[in-house]
Amino acid sequence: MQVPAQFQYEKATSVEHALSLLGRYGAESRVVAGGHSLIPMMKLRLAQPEVLIDINDLHELARISVEEHKLCIGALVRHADLLGSAIAGEHFPIFHDAERLIADPIVRNRGTVGGSLCQADPSEDLSAAFAAVRGEAVIQGTRGSRVVAVRDFFVGPYQTVVEPGELLVQLRVPIRSSASAYQKVERRAGDWAVAAAGAELRLRDGELEEVGIGLTALGAPGFHAPEAEEFLVGGPATDERFAEAGRIAAEHCNPVADQRGPVDYKRHLAATLTTRALRIARTRWHGQHHEEA
Amino acid sequence: MEITVTVNGRSYTRDVEPRLLLVHFLRDELGLTGTHWGCDTSNCGACVAWLDEVPVKSCTVLAVMADGHRVSTVEGLETADGLDAVQRGFMECHGLQCGFCTPGMLMTARWLLDHDPAPSEEDIREAVSGQLCRCTGYENIVRSVRWAAEHDTGRAAEPITEEVRAEVRK
Amino acid sequence: MTTTERHATPMGYGRMPRKEDPRFIRGRGTYVDDVTLPGMLHGAVLRSPYAHAKILSIDVSAAKAHPKVRAVITGADLAGLDLAWMPTLSHDVQAVLATDKVRFQGQEVAFVVAEDRYSARDALELIDVDYDPLPPVVDAQRALDPDAPVIRDDLAGRTDNHIFDWESGEKALTDEVFARADVVAVQDMLYPRVHPAPMETCGAVADMDTVTGKLTVWTTTQAPHAHRTIYALVAGLPEHKIRIVSPDIGGGFGNKVGIYPGYVCAVVGSILTGKPVKWVEDRSENLMSTSFARDYHMHGEIAATRDGRILGLRVRVLADHGAFNGTAQPTKFPAGFFGVFTGSYDLEAAHCEVTGVYTNKAPGGVAYACSFRITEAVYLVERMVDVLAYDLGMDPAELRMRNLLRPEQFPYRTKTGWEYDSGDYPRALRAALELAHYDNLRAEQAAKREREELMGIGVAFFTEAVGAGPRKHMDILGLGMADGAELRVHPTGKAVLRLSCQTQGQGHETTFAQIVAEELGISPDDIDVVHGDTDQTPFGLGTYGSRSTPVSGAATAVVARKVRERARIVASAMLEVSPDDLEWEKGRWFVRGDPEAGRTIQEIALAAHSDLELPEGIEGQLDATCVYNPPNLTYPFGAYVCVVDVDAGTGQVKVRDFIAVDDCGVRINPTIVEGQVHGGLADGVGMALLQVMAFDEDGNHLGGSFMDYLLPTAMECPSWRLGETVTPSPHHPIGAKGIGESATVGSPAAVVNAVLDALRPYGVRHADMPLTPAAVWRAAQGRPLRTDLAIT
Questions:
Q1: Is residue A57's pLDDT more than 80?
Q2: Could you give phi then psi for residue C423, rounded to 5 degrees?
Q3: pTM
């Protein structure tokens, strides 16, 4: 069995402690929470941090709550907890759709929301889900915290705006009237996405007042599809327009071929899954607002 | 570094390297070889054990992360009262062949029944979807867990009466 | 179907819980990695990152300087011991540790022995190998190009990558049949490279006792006795000083037949250090370097009359054997039992040609529950029948029914020379179609096609040839494929059965006890089955090719009958009658005409050890041994129906129903038989939809972990629905035929046929496995993927 190289281990007891450890060890240190991305990479010796800073005891980061009309998801919230959170599901069913298909139930018991975002894997479902609903990332440094739109959180594959010495502490999503959904094609249960799309929308007087589209594993900058969103806003939520939005999303994303599929197929999925996610979100909207409809 | 981990109710203190994986701590340090490993990438689930109250893939958890925590393994399923219902179910329904995935499957099954005493076939398949079995085609694993659900009256091995079974089904 | 109630132990055949389960459900099995010996050291293998490269130099000085490292071994060191190369099971040689160059990614280059496994792994990082990369041969279809790099320049005079040509059947007659056929359907198809991937990887603990000179190797082997003899031949060790112990094995499926370089290195490590050395490979090592399976590039042609009478089959195969010809099959069968490619049909003629080639990939080829290449053969013929049905516009079930061998044709000699022992094929197919409600499914499919929904129904029929084999025709490295058995009956009537075959989950400890119980009337609870230790068991060739029940099962019945006959003599002395006057009922000899006068086997066992006066020349005791040399293979068969729904928008396939009707002759423990079938069906779904080891143009392995090599989970598998027919083998002592590989052999074609049936509205006639969503979508677009290469 593969085993990691040696490292020094530090267990953080508070956010402040974690930040001071990050400050002390700098770029040679890595934060570990669930470890389900980092530890396999360390076993393969693709990652060899000199210091590992364990934040599993930072219970204050493990909460899901509503504060100031925002759904707040701590960075240490486990996937299973997000999947099990009624309040998250009530406001943003996209999270439940996505979580149901992230890895497997045992991995979800351990892997964390913050870890998934910080890993910035181009195939990470939650990145697209948070991008679709225009979430925000709260990043803490020794000199205070800053808030970055999730759409601006990713610099590139496996790269985020989190600086050395900083810690992602929370994800937030403004709660508003909306409906959302996530659609994913995977080769097998537990596999990473071949491609996936998330959609969030709000209708007013039969017109789309707000649309968010997230794309996974499709090479979309910031995991979203701004051209398709712009096309849809201000018009009716028809099948034809959803199909056109899918076409636009497919045109503007930039998937790469791998053993999950060739580029033409992934583009096809971008269109198909965007369209499907939009239609499911619309159905959910009408389900929630049937009195108004 | 020195860690203290409570495994199956017994406290163990060991001096370990920080990089030691929990699965190796259990197997090599404590001699609890019932927990297996089958891959390196947290895909196969042969290493499933409980960390506190939840099943985890112990090949992807550091032993130092379990310091001060409780770990439960297949060796802890049997008690003075007898075999656990999931253990009996796997024997009754031929839920294992080579036996390598079995400890992980049992630990997940026990967790599932603790949270859902009457899981559907779909629920069971979903629960073990992160665990590979190369022998059974999963059919008899599903049947074993269902058997266990129907016979799960604590961990005693007494024969189950129809009334008890009906009670469990409710 | 399977009873879930507590059952009494049957006195013989029937359902009973497995005797091996109590240890496994407590986590008390003993697998190789569970073996810990005092002073044990740990080995790790350094592997090549390149598919093809010259080794310019290897510097191990830094690794040797690691404080916990005890030894570092390179090919040069082994060459000094004449161990750098070892024989393969196909009369080739394979590098134990590379000396001249590396020939596949993941090939063994150096071996480190250290005090613990973490340090051994660390020390690999300290070895500096200077490689000069060479162009690799990745695409088997280019291996014989005149300008292809020559992989095996270690073999004198070698100027190309050709290994062998082999043919079967009558070419002229086949060509003549094709010339007069109304219809000829032609199809190329690939059975891609897959890996059996048992849950437990391969490994060994080698312990050389420097005082006695005795080498004990605890190892993951399906064939302990064959390993012992091969170690003796490879290492020049005296065979009586070698003990192979195969403890609990976490699945084999063919992966654990051969001897891998890591085992040899562990042995050498133990000899060099004087300590036990454990080596257990990780999952990537398992997938990248140990026996792959299949990799058959097949060209099929099927000839028929216009009304659907199949006349002939013509097949050409390009077989990718990797960098060393290491396939595990009987010597005279370089393409395994591919010669049974005529399947279950009554043909006029058939012919096949197989060409084996070297490529820069791991060696292997016969592994993974394939019954020596019958998976490939069945897939070929069952796909060709569907292609023919497509061309003729006929229902594939109807076309099969029209051409299946009829019961009165058995025993049936095929056009390629195999003698099928028994069968009632139409009965099995009818049973499967009825269980599936085939007509209803076709009606549902028609209605769905109106709505542009994709649903497919796949049918496959297979005949297996298992139980190798008659030793006259079948040997491995000169070792004839017969199995010994030894049965001891203790004075109190409890018995110990010693076998050469090795369970990897098949339940031998239960099944073989049941055979003895059936023959002797001793409860299976009172019979211990000993296997997996060459010091304790008689010689035999091991468990693979579904041979345990056909060969060792037969040996068990025969040795039990020998005991029964010995008991008869003792009973005759006890009852003071002639042995000829005794009759047997299960568990007891009694006097003919006087049923009250009898002795149980337990009473006889005690008497056999007592002061009872025995007839002249009778030694006492009941113990017996035998060697069973099968007169023929056994031929299990079955009919499978698979039902799939395909998402037209994404290409995703859902297997929603699978019906398997198997006929493996007499069933000893039906529960175990069904379990074997279940597992094989999951394999079929895996191979048809998920599993493949592809390679990029540089020869990089693209399936080197369970993230990339996808095995089916519970979510991809439907709830299997089984049926059965029973046609005993006429030549097997208990009429059993073997079941371990039937479902793996028969099911892939059923799944693929179902998916292609679903894609019929797109005019898709064939697409290669695995039918991933991308592959399905591209097939529907008329631009199928080449699944064995990198997707670009």
A1: yes
A2: 175, 150
A3: 0.97
